[in-house]
Amino acid sequence: MAKKAKNSGKPANGAGGTPATVALTAAGTPFAVHAYDHDPSSPSYGEEAAQALGVSPDRVFKTLVADVDGQLTVAVVPVAGQLDLKALAAAVGGKRATMADPAAAERTTGYVRGGISPLGQRKRLRTVLDASASAHATICVSAGRRGLEVELAPGDLAGLTGAVVAPIGRG
């Protein structure tokens, strides 16, 4: 069962806050933190989070880092689907997108793979949020650590990250 803490800026498990939760608290944004026991053998971080939290996979969003024309760009899409790289490139006025090197993504964001949050990144990257997020009152994204999710309104996420909202997910 997931543990929950509202607006604490600290994970429900009592550990110190992550850069993502600290950023949310500093902005005065309403949010909830959900912690769960991460299984290192799980094949999909996002699907594991959805199942552990008992949340529909279309409300849990994964944070992916792509390279669009030589510039790292964050894509936030539902864990139930995939990122459409052509749509991502188009959303930011680019021509070509590929998945970023995992080491570059970790180094630039300050987070580890499977725990990259769109919030509180070491270097703020251009961000695109899949339009499907708008269908939900709240969505869950990584809080900056494997086994830790933050739930917030999609509009708040877009506002805090300066995200473009566009249809970048598929199926």
| Spatial strand order of the main sheet | 6-3-4-7-10
Number of strands: 11
Radius of gyration: 15 Å
SSE succession: EHEHEEEHEHEEEHEE
For the biggest sheet, the summary is:
5 strands, mixed
The best one-word shape is globular
Distance between the termini: 28 Å
Number of helices: 5
Average residue-wise pLDDT = 90
Approximately what portion of the residues adopt beta-strand conformation?
25-35%
State the low-pLDDT regions, or none.
1-15
In helices, the fraction of residues equals 10-25%
Structural class call reads alpha+beta
Task: Describe the overall structure.
- With 171 residues, this protein is of the alpha+beta class.
- It is 24% helix and 30% strand.
- The chain contains five helices and eleven strands.
- The chain has helices at residues 19-27, 45-53, 85-91, 102-109, 154-161; strands at 3-6, 32-35, 61-68, 71-78, 82-83, 97-99, 126-130, 139-145, 148-152, 164-166, 169-170.
- The strands form three sheets. A five-stranded mixed beta sheet has the order 6-3-4-7-10.
- The model is unreliable at 1-15 (pLDDT under 50).
